[in-house]
Amino acid sequence: MSRKSVQYICQECGTSHAKWSGQCTECNAWNSLAEEAVKQVTPKGLSQRKGRTIEFVGLTGKTARAPRLVSGINEFDRVSGGGLVAGSALLVGGDPGVGKSTLMLQVAAALSSQVSCAYISGEEAIDQLRMRADRLEVSGTSVKLAAATSVRDIIATLDDPKGPRVVIIDSIQTMYVDNVDSAPGSVTQVRTSAQELIRLAKTQGFCVILVGHVTKEGAIAGPRILEHMVDTVLYFEGERSHQFRILRSVKNRYGATDEIGVFEMGGGGLVEVSNPSALFLADHDDNTSGSAIFAGVEGTRPLLVEIQSLIAHSQLATPRRAVVGWDSSRLAMLMAVLDTRCGLAMGGADVYLNVAGGLRIAEPAADLAVAAALVSSLSGKPIPAGTAFFGEVGLSGEIRPVTHSDVRLKEAEKLGFKNVVMPTRRKSGKSGKNSKKDTQNTSVNVIELSHLSDLVALYGTTEMGAQTSPPSKQ
Question: What is the pLDDT of residue 25?
Fold first, then answer.
């Protein structure tokens, strides 16, 4: 007879511990161990019965590609890789209240005209779902609604070849398997529930979309154990007080990663933004110092965003460093380079940096735009109108080339920018001349810089008395 024992599971990384402790030894999270009962059985290994022989095939061969399910919501289809794939599993994560349920109901309503779609909610009642559908004006679609949390009941309903082709589970943290002795939302329950639903989706060939909440650190609650189990991981980002929402792909077995889709939250739900660059720059003021336009690329999409900085005299012993939408460590590195290599003394001032529109930027190509915003804020001199920046900055102050220069230039030209400040292009060919490939099809004026001191010479002044003469590049 099996006996029950107790183990302690970390709710952040999923590691099991024999006894409770205040800190997990794997992820170093504090007060994250939760007690769970586990059935212990004597390991018997494999019996004497022989298994079925596995058949191997070669790398070459013909494989029929199943057609993708295109919802018609272009921003969602772009991030998912061109549409949903039959038999795939998607994980959509985001902060509570950011709009995950709204987006999923709109996607289900759009797909219901092509295939049978089911929306199973473990958080809301049927009446609440119908009220949301009325607000989104999709109540006339043929989406099948259900309120359930038992995975056994859900699998018994969906285990039918004629069942729905798209199933949305909202959310995976509310689902439970009745033979697992732990509360819904625990690591064991989330992992087991997702595994059973994904196994059925692969067997029956329908697409399952799992909605999951994120922790305060920004990871999928449950935790990241779900990310390797699914085919696609999408993060829904944005502040609840802000109208913009960003759907970002961090894993996709059927498409490009780091792809983004931009939505705007309104009274009637989420509205896709076809030209996010123009929307992010709608309130840009060319006459304000400390503002620079960054020509970035998210996945395959070029995107122009405004980077704002403010440098103020500090009254504190330790000056403040506040960063929104960018890496704070990279800001500290860039300030050190400007101080050491360019003679700008801003270490004793409060520095605030913000990426307008609620967007989060991770690519190093934003270094040059951030540096331009800092120099402009320090000098009090606005950046000339119609100027965009991109380029990576090294520790010695050199400005390094980045990828997709032609795409960035074309996006800047499309939005009416006249000047683009970028790194000096590499020499190519035996002649040693600079390649003109990136700029030959654009009419913008390209300003090439090789060192941060060149940027300071262009946009810096001695108005605040903080800038000294730039030192030599050596």
Answer: 85
Taking alpha carbons only, the member of 364, 385, 91 closest to residue 221 is 91
Token pair recorded at residue 379 = 């000098």
Measured in degrees and rounded to the nearest 5, phi and psi for residue 48 equal -75, -10
Q: Residue 435 in contact with residue 428, Cβ under 8 Å?
A: yes
Query: What are the extents of the domains in the chain?
Result: 3-40, 74-274, 279-427+439-459
Q: Rounded CA gap, 143 and 342, in Å?
A: 61
Structure tokens at 92: 């959509």
CATH number assigned to the domain covering 279-427+439-459: 3.30.230.10
Closest Cα to residue 291, out of 311, 275, 277, 276? 311
Q: What is the per-residue burial (b if ≥16 Cβ within 10 Å, else e) of 263-272?
A: bbbeeebbbb
Tokens of 163: 């069942």
Alpha helices in 205-327 (DSSP H): 276-280
> What is the Cα–Cα distance from 380 to 313, expressed in whole angstroms?
13
Which class in CATH covers the domain with range 74-274? Answer: alpha beta
467: pLDDT strictly greater than 50: no
pLDDT, mean over the chain: 85
More confident residue, 445 or 425: 445
pLDDT at 96 exceeding the cut of 90: no
Q: How large is the angle between the packed helices 151-158 and 187-204, nearest 10 degrees?
A: 0
Give the strand pairing for 260-266 and 269-272. Answer: antiparallel
d(CA 441, CA 410): 8
Alpha-carbon gap, residue 253 to 190, rounded angstroms: 22
Would you list the DSSP string of 163-195?
Answer: S-SEEEEE-GGG-B-TTS-S-TTSHHHHHHHHH
CA-based radius of gyration for the chain:
27
Q: Is-contact 414 280, C-beta < 8 A? A: no
- Asked if 283 and 289 count as a contact pair (C-beta separation under 8 A), the reply is no
> In a 10 Å sphere around its CB, with 0-12 CB exposed, 13-18 middle and 19+ buried, how is residue 285 labelled?
exposed
Q: Give me the residue label for tokens 């979309």.
A: 209
Dist CA 191 CA 14 (whole Å) = 9
- Residue 234's Cβ-count burial label (10 Å; 0-12, 13-18, 19+) is buried
Closest CA to 13 of 165, 217, 155: 217
SS3 of residue 421 by DSSP:
strand
